[in-house]
Specification:
This protein has helices at 4-7, 15-28, 30-34, 40-55, 63-72. The protein folds into 2 domains: 1-36, no CATH class; 37-74. It is flat, with a radius of gyration of 17 Å. The chain is mostly helical.
Length: 74
């Protein structure tokens, strides 16, 4: 049996193309994800991260900066 990556030809994409596909898939899920309730642990983690950001806003990265860091680690 073929994996989904082989079935849809994803295995033939470059890493850059795969990342673009992941972004498109994530963006397409925005509305359904909004309707999914968070667990208490997820809420606590988000609260912790917001508090950290508010205390250290200089530590935040833009989306472009984050992508550059991830790509640089390859």
């Amino acid at each position: 049996m073929f994996s989904k990556m082989q079935q849809y030809g994803i295995d033939k994409l470059s890493d850059e193309e795969k990342l673009g596909l992941v972004e498109e898939i994530w963006e397409s899920m925005e509305e359904p994800v909004k309707g999914m309730p968070l667990t208490e642990a997820q809420k606590q983690e988000l609260d912790r991260r917001v508090a950290h950001y508010e205390a250290h806003p200089e530590s935040a990265l833009t989306w472009d900066e984050l992508k550059q860091r991830v790509r640089a680690k390859r």
